[in-house]
Structure formats: C-alpha cells, structure tokens
Specification:
- This protein is about 60% helix and about 0% strand.
- It is an all-alpha fold.
- It has one domain.
- It has six helices and no strands.
- It is globular.
C-alpha cells in the first residue's frame, strides 16, 4: 500500500515544531524506557507506540516521519508545558500534542503499526513486576 504525503502539511509546519535529526535520535534512545515507566498510567500508550512504529517505517513519507518524531520527542521531555511529575496532569500536554499529530496523520498509521504497538505493549506489561512485589 503506497502512502501519500498529507497535502495540508508543508515544510514550514515541520520546521516550526523543530523536527530535526536530534528528535529521531532522542526518540530512538529513550522511547521504550519512558513508555515502560508510564504505560500503566497513560491511556495513549498504544497510540504513542503505533506512532513510533509509523515514524520508523521507511515507507512513511519523510514529512510525516518528522512530525511524528517531533511529537514523540515532546513526550520524552521530562519538563515541558506541564511537567510529567504532576500526577493526573503531567501527561495531558503530551497527550494533546500526540493526539493532534495522530489526528493529522492517521491515514499513515497502518494496521501493522498498531499490531506491532499492541505486541510491544503486551511484552512490556508482561515484564513489569506486580505492584508491591519489589
């Protein structure tokens, strides 16, 4: 299945959110560690993982990949608009940024990306120690 670039997204949009090679490196280095630590607390864990797999997919258009890496890099920042340490509120800004990116780019996230996300999250959850068993 061929992917198409979203005609509503232009290069200025990508540059405005700071999409660069650093975002990809940051996401590759820290995504799973962060998601493993918060997967039980954030309702958008599966969407974040699907976005990750879509961003890594070489068939995904470059502009889409850049936007996804930018949104995922924002998720990794510990101190952003609402720092993640604030229980209940800390991930609301992360969810909003990711939801906006996913809403704009939903046609690029394939069923294979979602399936890979579910499998990876199932593995993460299976390897987490039960609460109170430390």
């Amino acid at each position: 299945m061929a992917h198409r670039s979203d005609p509503t997204i232009d290069l200025e949009d990508i540059e405005a959110i700071g999409a660069d090679d650093g975002n990809e490196a940051r996401v590759r280095a820290g995504f799973w560690r962060k998601l493993a630590g918060v997967a039980a607390r954030v309702p958008f864990a599966e969407d974040a993982a699907a976005a990750y797999y879509c961003a890594l997919d070489s068939r995904t258009p470059v502009r889409v990949r850049a936007l996804l890496f930018g949104a995922l890099a924002y998720f990794l920042l510990p101190t952003d608009a609402v720092p993640d340490v604030f229980l209940g509120l800390g991930f609301t800004d992360d969810a909003a940024v990711l939801a906006t990116a996913l809403n704009l780019l939903a046609s690029h996230i394939a069923p294979t990306h979602r399936a890979a996300a579910r499998t990876a999250l199932d593995r993460l959850r299976a390897n987490r120690p039960a609460a109170g068993s430390r």
